[in-house]
Design brief:
The complex is a heterodimer of chains A (84) and B (319). Chain A is mostly helical. Chain A has three helices and no strands. Chain B contains twelve helices and two strands; from the N terminus they run H-H-H-H-H-E-E-H-H-H-H-H-H-H. Classes of the chains: A mainly alpha (84), B mainly alpha (319). Chains A and B meet through helix 1 and helix 3 of A and helix 4 and helix 7 of B. Chain B: This is Protein YIF1.
Chain lengths: 84, 319
């Protein structure tokens, strides 16, 4: 069996890792997804665009999950070294 | 808040165009769920809380009464919200409120299991031949602010069929293996893991797409309902599994399989699309205005790609 719950866990973990390592100054701001340059919407403008949601999501992942990710990654690496 | 040119012109009268006039309306529903669980908890744990209150009052009230303490508290709070970002902080608070509200009403999941034989039969018909829906109506029926349970409404999602379908699918897959003479008890677990993995991936994609496309203020599907819609794909999958036993010319099997998956795509697309933005509670006018045409269009595109292309790929992989 190629794909299973364990694989799905790895996929999600790696994807979250990929989001968490995106650098704010070097990368995100340059493609317009930085958190600092989100203009508060002017009157009449749509407040909840897809782009602002992506910005929020990236920001939330980076602030909330950075420290737990360290622990989970360490655990997974040890597991893979010993038993994988 | 950015500069608002209309702030002083219409601010003192009704202020229809003023965005500040709308803020109390938006804040009120956000604060309501925060209060209700605490009240109920206070009623339940009245005895325990009485002790705690007595202790804190006896010790001289709230610890932040001290001016230095309150300044430090405010400083810490502002530093915290600066660090996380005000948007994220608000979002986090909202999420916590929503989670506590959901925990209070978690017995609502049981409504998704209220099914009858007639409902299941009609639903199966709907999944297999969605082109001849008798009533031409795909919207769920509202009754005094709540949706009717599946027993009374064919278009309502239910959890019964996905769960039964999951079990049946795994058993049938393993029976096939047994008929071929290569049954292995481990396969029961492996197939379950793989199936759950696919369902989880599917649910993740659907939820993420809807989250990115739809304004979070607009009420939309809960995760359980999305899980229901994702789980209906076991019905065509089981039939496709059974089909491989019947000896038929090769092309016919492929054709029937193809039809089953297309039909499921139509069912999924219609039942999700017509119920996606239709729900609203008291403030009906507000919500209908704020759903823009572009949002609906984008949702339709996403649901098409998801329902037809991705579901077909996934079901070919699984079946």
């Amino acid at each position: 069996m190629i794909f299973g719950l364990g694989r799905l866990f790895y996929v999600i973990l790696l994807l979250i890792n990929a989001v968490a390592v995106l650098s704010e100054e070097r990368f995100l701001r340059r493609i317009g997804l930085g958190r600092s340059n989100d203009e508060t919407p002017v009157f009449g403008q749509d407040q909840n665009t897809t782009k602002s949601k992506v910005v929020q999501l990236i920001g939330a992942v980076q602030t909330l999950l950075r420290i737990p990710l360290i622990g989970i990654n360490v655990l997974v690496i040890i597991y893979e070294l010993l038993l994988g | 808040m950015s500069y608002n040119p209309y702030a002083y012109t219409t601010g003192e009268q009704n202020g229809v165009n003023d965005r500040f006039a709308h803020t109390p309306q938006h804040q009120q529903p956000m604060q309501m769920p925060r209060n209700t669980p605490m009240n109920s908890q206070a009623n339940v744990n009245a005895n325990m809380n009485a002790n705690v209150n007595a202790n804190t009052n006896g010790a001289g009230g709230f610890p932040f009464q001290d001016t230095r303490g309150s300044m430090a508290f405010q400083l810490g709070q502002s530093a915290f919200s600066n660090f996380i970002g005000q948007d994220n902080f608000n979002q986090f608070q909202e999420t916590v409120n929503k989670a506590t509200a959901n925990a209070a009403g978690s017995q609502q999941i049981s409504t998704y299991f209220q099914v009858s034989t007639r409902y299941v039969f009609n639903k199966l018909k709907l999944i297999l031949v969605p082109f001849i829906n008798g009533t031409k109506n795909w919207q769920r029926i509202m009754d005094s602010g709540n949706f009717l349970p599946p027993r009374d409404d064919v278009n309502s999602p239910d959890m019964y069929m996905p769960i039964m379908g999951l079990v049946t699918y795994i058993l049938i897959w393993n029976t096939q293996k047994g008929l071929q003479g290569s049954f292995n008890p481990e396969d029961l677990y492996y197939k379950l893991s793989s199936t759950l993995g696919f369902v989880g991936l599917d649910l993740l994609i659907l939820k993420l797409g809807l989250y990115l496309l739809i304004d979070s203020k607009i009420p939309s599907f809960s995760l359980v309902e999305l899980l229901c819609y994702v789980g209906y794909k076991f019905v065509p999958l089981i039939l496709a599994q059974l089909l491989t036993n019947v000896t038929m010319p090769f092309n016919l099997t492929i054709l029937i399989k193809f039809y089953l998956f297309i039909a499921f795509g139509v069912f999924l697309l219609r039942s999700v699309k017509f119920n996606l933005l239709g729900r609203s509670g008291a403030g009906e006018d507000d919500i209908h205005v704020s759903v823009s045409k572009t949002t609906v269009k984008k949702c339709n595109y996403f649901l098409f790609v998801y329902g037809f292309i991705w579901q077909n790929v996934l079901m070919w992989l699984m079946g």
